[in-house]
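Q: Sequence in, structure out?
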Amino acid sequence: MKAVSYKKILAKKLDDPEQAAEYLTACYEEGPEVFLVGLRDVVEAQGGIARAAELSKLNRENLYRLVSRDGNPRLTSLNSVLTALGLKVVFEAV
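A: Exactly. Output:
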């Protein structure tokens, strides 16, 4: 039996904005580093850095830095990327 890469399965699921939103929420709950890795996964699944940079009107190099493990995105940059991916930040009471 041929093995299937989990990255391919994950990418297919993250192409759907609903699935991407759930994934990013779970990543955010794990902490900032995990959230940035998750954001990078979603960006890659939805066309890659170049496409996200074009849609968000951000510089591609800045977007690479933003989604790196050591990234420290500004809220405006993060909002631009999420909007380009068809997502938004939502707050709820605990």
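Residues 22 and 63 are 22 Å apart (CA to CA).
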